[in-house]
Amino acid sequence: MSTQTRKLSLFIMMALQLAIWGAWAPKLFPYMSMLGFTAGQQALVGSCWGIASVVGIFFSNQFADRHFAAERFLAVSHVIGSICLLGAAYSTSFPAFFAFYLAYSLVYVPTLSVTNTVAFANLPNGKDFGQVRSGGTVGWVMASWPFVFILSEHSGVEQVRSIFLVSAGISFALAVFSLTLPHTPPKKGGEGLDSLAWRRALGLLKKPFVAVLFFVTFLDSVVHNGYFVMADAFLTNRVGIAGNLSMVVLSLGQIAEVLTMLVLGVVLGKLGWRKTMIVGILGHAARFLAFAFLADSVPAIIAVQLLHGICYAFFFATVYIFVDEAFPKDVRSSAQGLFNLLILGVGNMVASYVFPNLIARLTGADGKVDYSTLFLVPAGLAALGALVLAFAFNPPTAAPAGTLEDA
């Protein structure tokens, strides 16, 4: 398989992987509200990804990493995930919905780090990851477009449950496609891998710059996940965008993400780790401040979605690249799992608890939410993260070069 063909295959893998997520993520919390789930029940659903991230550290990044070819692991996981999504689509009671969504989370979340592993293992240069990962952005955008026709302006439960049906179809498609990916064999102990690599990865938190990055990643993951908790309802209930168009409006951010991912390598080379991450996290602050004070301007709210590309590529994608470049080879996979635990797990859990409860507290007797006050919370968290990075993050290399072993 030529290098270009391999890159295209990995690009499609990322597109399908993120399309599964993008099909349901923007509407998940509004859908749960339609089902009558309380803020506490919504927080429990949000905790599923945290549970799955912890399991992923011990299973996908340890056991599966050493006993299964990555492409086969992806195929099996996505078949099971497709079945679970179908179950969630037709579950209206909280216990049943929670059970199916938890099962889906347990098989899907680990595949996010596995696809990263497959990409890095089959790319000649780690800096090409940005181009391959942009496929995920394309997939997320494409997943939103069917709902322009599936949903109506004021959709009910019967229509909105289609988010899981579409996602299930994409999941099955990726299961089949995974079998065509470049063979990525399991890692054996003979390759010098530490069977308890996750402990060594945790031990790296003793290094100040790793601890600082870990803390800021936690802050930004809360802000990032909070965006998905609040954005769709804000667009439809406050800004006045039709329910069948809100996902398309949100997808504008992913379109911008394609461009920023393509130039990420150049930006990293010019700005370095710290400045690139600061720009990324300040993108969150700017977007939420616009939400807080410009909600009456539909054009402004639509335009500010373009900041999402900067928010994701310049912070989260940069973190993934930093881990792959700066951490010792035998703990990189486990370190990716630890940061995934923050980004997809702990941050998701905290955001799923904090923001639904904040919305409940800031909802007046007339049923209207005080969004101006609400959005100052994530904006403040993002600003704090940027300050911590500016004054406390001192990586061993200024730009993509070197490893922790050289520090």
TrEMBL record:
Keywords: Cell membrane, Membrane, Transmembrane, Transmembrane helix, Transport
UniProt xrefs under InterPro entries: MFS_dom (IPR020846), MFS_trans_sf (IPR036259), Nuc_H_symport (IPR004740)
TM annotation in the entry: 7-24, 44-61, 132-151, 163-181, 209-228, 248-269, 276-295, 301-323, 335-355, 375-393
GO cellular component: plasma membrane
Source domain of life: Bacteria
Key word Membrane present: yes
Subcellular location: Cell membrane
Domain Major facilitator superfamily (MFS) profile: 1-397
Pfam families named among the record's database cross-references: Nuc_H_symport (PF03825)
Protein name (record): MFS transporter
Naturally occurring in which organism (per UniProt): Novosphingobium umbonatum
